[in-house]
Amino acid sequence: MKTPQPPPPVVSRYLQENELSQEDKDLISSLPTEKGWVANYLHKYQGFWQATTHMQGALACQKHFQALESDILLVTTPKSGTTWLKAILFALVKREHYLDPQRHPLLTENPHVLVPFLEIDVYTDIQVLPDLSSLAPPRLFSTHLPYSSLPDSVKHSGCKVVYLCRDPKDAFVSLWHFANKLRPVGSGASSLADAFDKFCRGVSVSGPFWDHILGFWKESLKRPESAIFIKFEEMKEEPALHLRRLAKFLGCPFSPEEETHGVVDGILRLCSFENLSNLDVNKSGILSSGMENNAFFRKGEVGDWMNYLTTEMVKKPDSITQEKFHGSGLKRVYSIENLRDFNGFIHPWIFMEFN
Ligand code: PAP
Q1: What is the CATH number of the domain that holds 162?
Q2: Which of 64, 67, 70, 157 is buried most deeply by CB count within 10 Å?
Q3: What is the structure's pLDDT at 7?
Q4: Coil, strand or helix at 278
């Protein structure tokens, strides 16, 4: 009798490379390519590094995605708190449909299912284009694409863009953990130093990290009615304030009755790390992109980089931040006094002050 074989391991879409059209293969082979550290390879396209499979999705959505004025697009660099903001956006803009907190879709679906990535989840099949016409407005999508690579229709439709950024050091540490989850069982963790070097050189999914932030920061200054800029650290520090800000920006401010009934706190509780990470759906279960849902919930904290990066190492990203954001108007986002890294060095603020 044959011994039952375990099912083949699900290969995350980050690592898939074989579903490309000839046209995409030709374009990709003409691009600068480096060995990746999250995906196998990264290709420099329109100034930013993209994983092979995201390239296919990016090209397809650039060609075919028709944004509507009522759409909402969440944009992040990987590991900036995308999952959290997806949950918050869904709970916020669809709140009138889900008044019973016991039957909310976020209790049974991972936020990435409710707010799919354009280039990772929506435009994945090179044979069949998705039919997005039946989705109820406002349609919610997300992307890691930089501003320069957004589909033209996003820039011209007047749809709302919500940009979330995070301290590069925390985003890096989070991405390094995520990358390790993608590695074949038994192959151990990838080299932190090697990944850090690549990240600082800009060679990271949707990197250079800093240029990604700057592109959207400038856009939010130019078109404040269409683009809002949010920082993970500020959202952690004053979530209710930023949720109200977001609601106003999206044209669905909280009414006095909702304020009285604690709707703001209800949304924040539902979307909190503690709540989402403890739901069955997020403890087990797998996304269509091949990732386990629990890979998107690790610590959800500010400053975890202190447990991984030495004082010497952090000089690098901090000086890049200082140099790149100088004169941009981006302000210090988070101040914590007396936080020491494991070398005893006090970091007076997490993100940096830009002037
Ligand atoms: P993505 O960009 O690949 O979709 P993203 O959701 O940005 O991933 O990254 C996950 C990070 O958000 C994790 O951070 P950490 O590794 O530093 O812990 C994850 O823990 C954090 N996260 C997920 N959900 C929440 C939440 N509800 N509140 C705060 N942080 C969260």
Answers
A1: 3.40.50.300
A2: 67
A3: 39
A4: coil
